Amino acid sequence: MLTLDKIYHASYALRDVVRKTNLTLAPHINQESEVYLKTENLQITGSFKVRGAYYKISQLSEEEKAKGVIACSAGNHAQGVALAAAKNKIASLICIPNNAPISKVEATKRYNAEIELVNGVYDDAFQRACEIQRESGRTFIHPFDDVDVIAGQGSIGLELLDQLPELDAVIVPVGGGGLISGIAFAIKSLRPQCKVYGVQAVGAPSMYNSVKHHHVEALDYVSTIADGIAVKQPGNLTYDLCEKYVDKIVTVTDDEISTAILMLIEQQKLIAEGAGAVAVAAALFNKVDIKGKKTACIVSGGNIDVTILSRVISRGLLKTGRSADITLELVDKPGELRDVSRIIAQLGGNVVAVHHDRSGENTNVNGCYLHLVMETKNHAHILEIEKALMDQGYKIVGRERTCVC
User: Fold this and answer.
1) CA 72, CA 154: separation in Å to the nearest integer?
2) What kind and span of H or E run contains 155?
3) Which DSSP symbol is given to 301?
4) Residue 304 and residue 306: Cα distance in Å, rounded?
5) Which backbone phi and psi does 71 adopt, to 5 degrees?
6) How many helices (H) and strands (E) does the chain have?
7) Other residues' Cβ atoms within 10 Å of the Cβ of residue 1
8) How far apart are CA 271 and CA 319, in angstroms?
9) Is 47 a catalytic residue?
């Protein structure tokens, strides 16, 4: 059983292994709340996962250690297990979905773990790891549905209350539920009036659906940029703990996650992966009631694949009105591009890409399409530019932007 004593023991066992990550004030995330960031993205291995993995492995018998350990992970748990195994001089084998970010796979290899890539998502890697465990006798280190793992993650809850004793609310990313289970148990045991909110991606709402319908549910598929929480089915233990100790679970879209990643980069100088930014997205877009509350957002990981970072930033720029794509239908004559550019420049917009197309089927013989990508200030600025163009007789036939106004 999970107990507060076990969480305290985990915190003691981890004292010389993990960092007590900073709790940083973030005044621009939500103007109606005093928001703080628990920066687990700056943890060793770049994620909170090392806490649960290390504590679990530290509790193994000598016989279990001799047989080695096996785990499955989308990347962060893999690194935690690999590091913990290496420190305890134990052989480790990690099953990782083949679509996991290359950076996470390579980081895991650096801790001398044996890697097996598995076709599919986390749940497919889980099934393969179970097969190998039965064949080899290795100890399976579950990424979330294990009392020792949950206790290790719960050490974050103890740190939060030590750093901010008057904490009113905490917002936690949710995949399989290990992190929120540990944090919620610790906080509700010591400060029951503090609200605990969970956040999942719209494309992977397994715990959200399960809590809503009061039984564990499995998704047919998951699709989200937050690969670290792309879990088809939550654990039985974590589901029970969430039902009992979590006040509410909400979802955020990939666009909202991208916006949160961008805000963390610009405002806080922090890099978060998709899963690590969902709590900030929930605070940013008022998915939970934190008005007037001292609120902590768990930035659970920073291991984002740099190859998709630029795409995520682009999504965030579109979401906030900092970038806009528009397509104009023009008469194909000299000076049109100059005149369009002048209007945009006079209003403070910056054209960063231009595509001129004469081949459209629906255009007049002497017509063309002009596709522009602009840097803008916000959604109101985009509307101002579009109005000025239309006032000058230009026809806007296409827009690519996400308006939150």
Assistant:
1) 21
2) helix 147-163
3) B
4) 6
5) -150, 165
6) 15, 14
7) 5
8) 18
9) no
Q: Tens-digit pLDDT profile for the chain (405 aa)?
A: 899 999 999 999 999 999 999 999 999 999 999 999 999 999 999 999 999 999 999 999 999 999 999 999 867 899 999 999 999 999 999 999 888 778 778 888 888 899 999 998 777 888 999 999 999 999 999 999 999 999 999 999 999 999 999 999 999 999 999 999 999 999 999 999 999 999 999 999 999 999 999 999 999 999 999 988 999 999 999 999 999 999 999 999 999 999 999 999 999 999 999 999 999 999 999 999 999 999 999 999 999 888 788 888 888 888 888 999 899 988 888 888 899 999 999 999 999 999 887 765 555 666 788 899 999 999 999 999 999 999 998 999 888 754 443
The one-letter amino acid at 353: A
Neighbouring C-alpha atoms within 13 Å toward the C-beta of 397: 13
Residues 6 or more apart whose CB falls under 8 angstroms from that of 190 comprise: 4, 157, 158, 161
Query: Is residue 368 within 8 Å of residue 358, measured between CB atoms?
Result: yes
Crossing angle for the helix pair 336-346 and 379-391, to the nearest 10 degrees: 140
Active-site pick, 56, 300, 319, 323: 300
Active-site entry in 38, 49, 232, 319: 49
Radius of gyration for the chain, computed over Cα atoms and rounded to the nearest angstrom:
24
**At residue 29, what are phi and psi to the nearest 5 degrees?**
-75, -45
Q: Tally Cβ neighbours within 10 Å of residue 325.
A: 15
Q: In what order do the strands lie in the sheet with 114-118?
A: 114-118, 92-97, 69-72, 139-140
Q: What are phi and psi of 79, to 5 degrees?
A: -65, -40
- Residue carrying structure tokens 């494309």: 203
- Asked if residue 92 lies in contact with residue 113, where contact means CB atoms within 8 angstroms, the answer is yes
Spatial distance between the Cα atoms of 166 and 347, rounded to a whole number of angstroms: 47
DSSP string, 261-283: HHHIIIII-----HHHHHHHHHH
- Angle of the 4-13 helix axis to the 147-163 helix axis, nearest 10: 80
Q: Which of 174, 198, 193, 192 lies closest to 246 in space, CA to CA?
A: 198
Residue with tokens 């008022």: 286
Cα–Cα nearest to 196, from 229, 216, 163, 171: 171
* Alpha-carbon span 380 to 320, nearest angstrom: 10
Q: Based on the residue annotation, tell me whether 11 is a catalytic residue of this protein.
A: no
